[in-house]
Design a protein that fits this description.
alpha+beta; 2 strands; two-stranded antiparallel ribbon
Length: 110
């Protein structure tokens, strides 16, 4: 689930959130989390432990501060291969891409 969907499910209007810089905004987000006093979770009001700049249609870039539970709810699963066959397939695909690029370059030189 994306932060936009989470807040829509909670009935939070994007216009009520603080304006943010265009995402990604890692440095401002890192500075925002430890600021005092702690910010409330945008979804539930508990203490926020993460922050990210999110673009909302019609509302622009807004800060979404999330507690642990809501941060986990919007965590994107890893796209890194987890099994040896998946890793091998990724390596084969990368090698094939390198070989194609090498062929294109050799044709450009001749």
């Amino acid at each position: 689930m994306e932060p936009v969907e989470l807040l829509a499910r909670q009935g939070i209007a994007p216009g009520t959130l603080e304006p943010a810089p265009a995402p990604p905004a890692p440095r401002p987000a890192f500075d925002r989390v430890p600021a005092m006093p702690p910010r409330p979770c945008s979804a539930c009001g508990d203490m926020a432990v993460t922050a990210r700049a999110v673009t909302f249609a019609g509302a622009g870039h807004r800060w979404v501060d999330l507690c642990r539970d809501h941060a986990l709810a919007v965590w994107r699963p890893s796209r890194v291969p987890a099994t040896l066959p998946e890793i091998a397939a990724d390596l084969r695909a990368a090698l094939a891409a390198v070989e194609r690029a090498r062929e294109v370059r050799s044709q450009e030189v001749t």
